[in-house]
Amino acid sequence: MRTASCSCGQLRIEVDGEPLGIGVCHCLACQRRTGSVFAALASFAPPYRVHGQATEYVRAGDHGSRFRFCFCPVCGTTVFHTEEGCEARSVSVAIGAFADPAFPPPRASVYDRRRHPWVSLPPGVDAFDEDPP
């Protein structure tokens, strides 16, 4: 089991098993959402357990999918998100919310065409100009 939490600890998510996927997203929406130059995410299969209260923000992706981002109403940290209609398949958790420097590296990089030129990817990462459908 792994636990990810917001900065103040009010919102937490517990996930089981190894990640289904680990990636970074360089789209402009993720850059704005995180306040960083990319988002780093790990997806996990259910079941997962959420503790605390979350405020939600829903955003449409480029291919029409709707993503529900859950963040702490106290400190504002985004902790996880789901894709509407796919909640039974996976949850995506912000890697930084695990606060684990030993967390495995990303395997994929999406919206690589938006990657800042000074950001280097680890060897072996599959890079996609956009988000593959």
From TrEMBL:
Range of residues in the leader sequence: none
Record InterPro entries: CENP-V/GFA, Mss4-like_sf
Chain ranges of the CENP-V/GFA domain: 2-112
GO molecular function: carbon-sulfur lyase activity; metal ion binding
Alphabetically ordered keywords of this record: Lyase, Metal-binding, Zinc
Glycosyltransferase recorded as keyword: no
Gene3D superfamilies listed in its UniProt record: glutathione-dependent formaldehyde- activating enzyme (gfa)
Family: Belongs to the Gfa family.
Name used for this protein in its record: CENP-V/GFA domain-containing protein
Species assigned in the record: Dokdonella fugitiva
